[in-house]
Amino acid sequence: MNENDQNPSKEALLKDLLLIKEAAQKSNNLFRYLSLAQGIKKLALWGTGLVAVSCGIVIWLPQSPSIEASQELAVQVLLYSLLAVSVVLLGIYKIRLFLNLGRAYRKDITFSQLMHAAFSKPLLRHLIPQALVMIALIIFFSWRGEHIFIVPIVTLFFSIIIFSMIAHLGMRELFGFAFWLLISGIASLFLAPYLSTPLMILSNLGIGMLALYFGALVVSRRQNRGQK
């Protein structure tokens, strides 16, 4: 066999190796190698506290004799704004946490690489349509004046989004959180006419954060047992 006969087989072998490498890179997600449980527990506790305090104040203030009826709306808008700011701060804390964990695994990792690993193209193909449907439903129910259904709808879509992230990123710590959001979202959808918005947020998101904590705790203990 001469050299010309060997060239096609070498080229075919190289193509096969490149295909194998590309497939490995696509299935090799950074988050599957990070120990997220400890950080997620801290995040869940902070989230539980912020949700509980914000919703508790929103529930209590209208009953305070020092708050006039005309001021109730302004107080609620202010406090919901503070809740939104708290969510943003938790998001920033989460990004810094994941970045530190990523650098413990690989020192040269950058923020853009972390975001690329977190929001890969297959995951975005699921998240973008889900987010668009959620936004459309929020606008529709707001336009119809059915504001009581916004919290259940957001809760249900967040559960679907988190289940998608679990499937793509392998983040088992989020399973309890996603499951609670699904169950509480369905329940609050039927009970919305009988519950206040702060109470629904507290029961859905506040207890959901506790479920996130215990889910991370279970995963953390399993990892510790596996290392012994």
How are the secondary structure elements laid out?
Elements: H1 3-27, H2 37-60, H3 72-105, H4 111-118, H5 121-143, H6 150-169, H7 175-191, H8 197-227
Helix pairs in contact: 2-3, 2-8, 5-6, 6-7, 7-8
Tally of DSSP helical segments: 8
- The number of strands is 0
Terminal Cα span: 55 Å
Tell me the radius of gyration.
23 Å
Overall residue-averaged pLDDT value: 75
Order of helices and strands: HHHHHHHH
Description of the molecule:
With 228 residues, the chain is mainly alpha-helical. 80% of the residues lie in helices and 0% in strands. The chain is built from 8 helices and no strands. The protein has helices at 3-27, 37-60, 72-105, 111-118, 121-143, 150-169, 175-191, 197-227. Helix 5 (121-143) packs antiparallel against helix 6 (150-169) and helix 6 (150-169) packs antiparallel against helix 7 (175-191). The longest helix is centred in the middle third of the chain and has 34 residues, at 72-105.
For the structure shown, list the relevant keywords:
228 residues; 80% helix; mainly alpha; globular
Summed up, what is this model?
By secondary structure, this protein is mostly helical. It contains eight helices and no strands. Mean pLDDT is 75; it is low at 19-28.
